[in-house]
Amino acid sequence: MTPDELLDAYEEMALIRRTEKAAHDLFMAGFVKGTTHLAAGHEAVAVGASAALRPDDYVFATYRGHHHAMARGATPEECLAELMSKATGLCQAKGGSMHLTKASTGMLGSYAIVGAHLPMAAGAAWSAKLRGSGQVAVAFFGDGATNIGAFHEALNLAAVWRLPALFVCENNLYMEYTPIADVTAVPNPAADRAGGYNIPGEVIDGNDVTVVHEAVARAAERARKGDGPTLIEAQTYRHFGHSRSDPAKYRPAEEVERWLKHDPLDVARARLEAAGVPPETIAERDRRVAQVVEAAVAAAKNAPEPDRELAFTDVWADGSATWRT
Amino acid sequence: MADVISYREAVAEGIAREMRRDSTVVCLGEDIGAAEGVFKTTVGLFKEFGPQRIWDTPISEQAIVGAAMGAAMTGMRPVAEIMFSDFLACCWDYLANEIPKARYMTGGQVTVPLVIRTANGGGLGFGAQHSQAVENWALTVPGLKIAAPSTPADVIGLMASAIRSDDPVVFFEHKALLAGSGARPPDDHVVELGKATVAREGTDITVVGLASTVPVALKAAEQLAGEAISVEVIDLRCLVPLDMRTVLSSVERTSHLLVVEENPYQGGWGGTVVSVVADEGFEMLDAPIKRVAGACVPLPFADALEAEVIPTVDKVTEAVRRLSAY
């Protein structure tokens, strides 16, 4: 990444971080119902990968997917309005936190059944191959997904069909509340499975946006050349618990401290300073981010509720919900 | 004979007609390519369209249906085969949670124009895990369209509508009907989803069937005609959209309703049909509504035992006689 690209990536990560903090605060203040799975700490995976993709590539994410929606162009206001059940939400308030989607930019959904979207990404990659479009499809998923059948079926299909698919695991060391190491037979839950499907697998520092960018760019190039899928395991760490009700007390203090010192924003800031970007330039971006998120929170709070008739639209492609004559 | 086609051949013919007119239609499934399908319902497709459009898959039902979904969201019209409908349970997440909800929960941002074809029902002696009629499984989930033809012409006509539909369609091909034959429909034959047909006109009692139970009801009607009972047989053809207008207008004339369904009585689709008639057509009725349905047991292996469990002509004639005498 050039210094300018890195600066933009830093700003995008800062925007995600601040939006996630706002989502947390809005939840605690009663503005967000249901649940949220915040991605603070995971920003470098989404932003580094997105920067390495073409605008027309496809992205599939999980219920912990706010960062992927934003990295692919969803605004903080659209996301927060969705969380707050507002008409201006990304999905018209019919999806919620776990289903952020921005199809117009190829962000084809956030899926809340663990592992379900990996076969979908394989299918989007198959479609790209059939159409000769040169697009790739990326599935982001957590370490917990590596022990579910859909993960294995998707990897095998993508490998035998040589699909332009990227499988990017965000390994944050815990499947919900349980250490992934306690329930997985191999040390690297994603990358160590790659051999079983005869595809490349690598473990990378998921908190360094430049490392993620390079790994995804390599895998995407390989996919576009027709050489098939790649499995990337990006090691990272959540700053919040699994979901809104989880204070994450099962994580050792020493481990938390170690990872918080390896914050993706700090890593990027250090790289920017090493590249000679003045601290004032970075601070300028931080101020801009703060303004954008503050305005997004205000706009989302002021947005109208969804019209009640939306409950009965868009079951079918004609916009209706009619099931009988 | 060129003007006759088997139900089995009609499946491949219906798919082929759509593949010829739309290059985005692609097929995937186990053994569907060079092997031409375990039920021989994809005969000729691989030869005509080749490996770029007919894709053999591993035994991975989640990957088959999940990949079909991803392809459908990105410009293709996939036709996925799940070999036996019992195996829908292996990819049930996609039918229950993913495919029918993607459009709704994204506020209409995505469409999922795909067909999941599957061989359904009993009659071939495959035992409890390969003989179930499971069309009611799909009916439990809002967001899936459901077709289940009883004749070769309807196989072709409904296949055309299913593949052209921008909505997901689960297409049940009945195993016991595969060997049967009927008139070959003209090239442009299309049967709209959600339109029932009156398979036999009658005046005394309405019998509603679907797929395999339509010929059962027709045979029963023939027998009962000799007893001066005039039976009207309605072939629903689809469960979603469900053509209740045709059912209600028939009941308005006959004042009697019998539903014949192969899936279990417990949770079977007949319960939905009956509840609408009870609600909206109660005053038309001169007798209780009856259902001849699959028994609430797993499908047994032996023919004699299977006949005990699924609808038969004798069970239908007996039920009609009782209703008629009410």
UniProtKB/TrEMBL annotation, chain A:
InterPro entries reported in the protein's UniProt record: DH_E1 (IPR001017), PDH_E1_Alpha_Subunit (IPR050642), THDP-binding (IPR029061)
Cofactor(s) the protein requires to work: thiamine diphosphate
Record Gene3D superfamilies: 3.40.50.970
Membrane-spanning ranges: none
Domain Dehydrogenase E1 component: 12-307
Xref: CDD domains: TPP_E1_PDC_ADC_BCADC
UniProtKB keywords: Oxidoreductase, Thiamine pyrophosphate
Name of the molecule in the record: Acetoin:2,6-dichlorophenolindophenol oxidoreductase subunit alpha
Taxonomic lineage from the root: Bacteria, Bacillati, Actinomycetota, Actinomycetes, Micromonosporales
